Amino acid sequence: MSTVAIELTNINKYFGKVCANKDVSLKVESGTIHGIVGENGAGKSTLMSILYGFYQADSGEINVHGKQTLIRSSYDAISAGIGMVHQHFMLIDELSVLENIILGYELDDALGFINFAKIQTEIKALLKLYDINMNLGELVTNLSVAQKQMVEIIKLLYRNAKVLILDEPTGVLTPQEADHL
What we know:
Elements: E1 4-15, E2 18-29, H1 44-51, E3 59-64, E4 67-68, H2 74-79, E5 82-85, H3 97-102, H4 116-129, H5 145-158, E6 163-166, H6 175-180
Parallel strand pairs: 5-6
Antiparallel strand pairs: 1-2, 1-3, 3-4
């Protein structure tokens, strides 16, 4: 039996006099994959930005796993189990894969230290689970576009995201990379 992961009800968003979303409702069952398609300017990105906390709806309701949820920031979204991979990646080229994955995430122990060995073991388990071959010590600047996208996805999975929003995920990938995704 499937459960509802995300339910948006009557979402409205205006930018001045311009209506980006009018009475938009969307229900996403757990374990399913959906594509939201439409013309440029149709409000797709605005709707996903509301779900991820970049924008706040002027009216409407967001329910996450059956519970009404106020999402005012990306922190709220991540706390609710929602992650987003943006079309333009949010990675720092000068940092390693591992550093990008843990950047900004509260990982230190009671003494204020980061247990890199434990973190690496956990991330390597995720990489193995999803059949991703990646060197955690590699600088992001040396990665392909597809590898950078995988870093973004692993970063969200490591933060326990249960719902992933992918903004145009195959737009810059080769057919083989898209198949692997």
